[in-house]
Structures
1.
Amino acid sequence: MQKLKEKYLKEVTPKLMEEFAIGNKMAVPRIEKVTLNMGIGDLVKNKDLLEAAKKDLSLISGQYPSVRPAKISVASFGIRKGVPVGLKVTLRGERMWAFLDRLFSIVLPRFRDFRGVSLDSFDNFGNYTLGIAEHTVFPEIDFAKSQPHGLGVTITVNSKNKDLSRRMLELLGMPFEKKGK
């Protein structure tokens, strides 16, 4: 069992039940999935770079990404309907826990001048979205062989409460920024 999942089950769940007066263990929020998205708009013209981006995302996530086509044509951006514009991976189960463990303990602290992730990135349903400017901060990626791309990470939680979701991620070890400084 993953270290982070074990921490969730043994430490975080009882603490959330106590702090938020939750009587039923099944009512405690849990992470349903983690979705990784990478925009590849300019890579469509170069098949080698597109394959390299797919390889990088599969190294980061542990599974092969799906290619996402454009839903509509936008002439000003030079995009036609059906042309690949992004890569997407949805992680669940053990891969999700392994990814989150690496994200919290290895990747986020590698950022220069890192003071924590923003508290403003929660949506109204308690899901958290994090933008990473360069995917090369992941230790699996060889910086010399890879062209940096942005990566979107969305953590989907089955809670409808922002505060509950924030506290759960905080207890799991997500480094949030300190307010008041």
2.
Amino acid sequence: MTVYSVYEPPAEASDLVARAEALVFVKEGFSWPALLLPGLWLLYRRLWVAFALFLLLLGLLAWALGPSEEGQSLLEWLTLGIAVLLAFEANDLRAAALERRGYALAGIAIGPGLDAAELSFLRTWLPREQSRQREREQSGPHARPAGPASGGGRLHQAQGEEVIGLFPRP
């Protein structure tokens, strides 16, 4: 089973379907693409600052180790080590970048793959958001929207059971 953190963009769309389509699922754990193609992965995920730091670090290491055969061999090993470190931290970097852009954690999704995790998350998220939308419509235009700060952003287990700590609610 794969675990995904689900992020919702800061600008709320009025249409619930548009909000569901704007959700971003970030896989937790190791990233193989970030290991195999670290620079391209950073560019693809639009992590510009991390990409610049990655290039700066590699450039500084190449300069410090020099053009000798031993230096180049050491540089190759250090580059591999940096790529492995990046692969372990890549998805956390992506989540932090989303949070800096104003995205809020909407919940956690669990499934054997992304499609199954999305489906199980949306099965719990959509009914909850529909009821919130009805409450907002009934309470009028001056009502405060329910969000994570008001207790409305509870995390749900992927199968739809509400969890308190380690135990499902009876």
3.
Amino acid sequence: MSQLHNPTDTEQLLLIDYIVHHQKSNGSTRPKVFKWKTLKINPHCTVTFTKPHSFKPITTRKYYPGEHRFTLQINGKATAYASTTLIP
């Protein structure tokens, strides 16, 4: 869950993406940017939102055990970080 607050007196237009740094078979990571949403926040308002991300096996990507990091990117700037560990 993430919260964004607009402390200014003007409406803010935000482009929100998230990046998953996928674990590769050789132990390194590879970032993949996922487009999420465009959001307008009114002056002095707070917005709360969540975004689930599935690690279900798919034909175009193989998931390897290990740490997978997440980066929240707002208007092209990294603003928050989290990680999870996949176990075999």
4.
Amino acid sequence: MDYPLPRAADVPDIDVGHLDHPSPSTEGGFKGVGESGIIGAPAAIANAIADAVPSIGAELTSLPVPRERLWRSLTAASGRERAPPVVSK
């Protein structure tokens, strides 16, 4: 009770400004904004797949890995043809 959470009335007004500095090294001057948080996710998924499937000899070396491609790789490596699994979304 001694340290309450700040409320909207406690936060000062914020002035937002926009500075435009195009990148000299890309066509159109585009720069990335905030992508660093998503860079690791595709690699982590690919590594999880790579760690999970070597026992049957499946190999995936590029992204993206849609479930159809993963299924084809797994069935080709195992030599069995079955219907693809049903995955709920």
